[in-house]
Amino acid sequence: MTRFDQHLVADRGQPAHAIELIAPAAFDAWLGAQPARTRAMLAAHRFTGKPGTHAIVPGDGEAWSVVAVTDDVGGPWSLAALPAALPGGTYRASDRGGELGWLLGQYRFDRYRKAEDVEPRILVTADAATLPETLRLAEATAWVRDLVNTPACDCGPADLEAATEALAKRHNAHVVVRRGDELEQGYPMIHAVGKAAARDRAPRLIELHWGDPQAPRIAFVGKGVCFDTGGLDIKPSAGMRLMKKDMGGAAHALALADLVMAARLPVRLHLLIPAVENAIAGDAFRPGDILRTRAGLTVENTNTDAEGRLVLGDALTRAGEEKPELVLDFATLTGAARVALGPDLPPLFTDDEALAADLIAAGTVQSDPVWRLPLWDAYDEMLKSDVADLVNAPDGGFAGAITAALFLRRFAPADSAWAHLDVFAWRPGAKPGRPKGGDAYALRAAYAVLKKRYAAGASGVPERSHT
Known about the structure:
Largest sheet: 9 strands, mixed
CATH class of the largest domain: Alpha Beta
Distance between the termini: 17 Å
CATH architecture of the largest domain: 3-Layer(aba) Sandwich
CATH topology of the largest domain: Aminopeptidase
Structural class: alpha/beta
Number of helices: 14
Strand content: 15-25%
Helix content: 25-40%
Number of strands: 20
Shape: elongated
């Protein structure tokens, strides 16, 4: 797991280069107050205060500082572009709030190439009390990125199991795993989707339990399709290219569980990851097959490339058996969600008005937005089957993200607050602090809601320290 301890430290008055953050509207006034030599130097470099730009400004002797113009003064991404542009050293910003972006601006995925020998860029922060939390948020985000960026050859079902075991060891949690043919009776949809994979990539349901059994129960479910060929309804090569990221929901659920346990929120946490590879072989499930489910419903499989909702259905049923008061599921579920809202804005589906309001508000505050789409009851009829209780993918393709969420609702516990987040888990173009590749969406928003609902308390689990 990526660590950021060396990049953010408490401010103890140590020497540091100043970073002055300026909003575009304030640049002219700032420039007018500078010494003539500074104005001349900036003019020579054609520095005009365009948002997203910075300049190094000389001081007395060998001293120098940084001026950065940003539309996000006080926001999490205000400093994100600077670590890649500034020389190594220690810095102190004029405004708080950009610490997370400073850290994530130094994220690198270098597992498969020689790591750059880069001198660390260190930010000193006066927010010493929030420093551990900022580090945890950055590291959780980086863990999502690492997992999603890792190709399927090194991130299969067994690797997700190992990641969960390592997480459990860090927090004194308990893991239960059901694998292969053991799933056929109790979790038939997970088994059906994953049974064509090679033996060492057999399907499994990974469950983690943590916290006081008497505490409020919450559950996270993450789609763990480690690679998706589309099954017998095979994807074209262009559609298969990024399918290493189809376990992005599992990555989000793991990272959120890490945040909850590290903060010692007084909850009984149940993490569920149905981990499969949707492969093609002689025993692959077929279009037209009728699948049984843990919930007792039957599903006519109309599209083997609509497999994520199948494995989530059995996992959501299992989550409901523990009677949680809150269930969150994360999944890279539909292309329709991307057509509707693009890569940056994950749709939120829930029938719980309070939960919807909390997630939307937290997304705004955390600069981690979600957009609510309806669980439109009238579209339930699209899930009707002539031969089973429902289909997994309606004909026609209308409202694809909504019908997928409606399918999941059939398996979500009726007495629990439930929200489904259809995340992309991938950033197709780089932004400051957010490189192209795997990324976390709605993670900080969900964590903020959980912190608000469940005040931190003693659960007997030691918090991972940062020094």
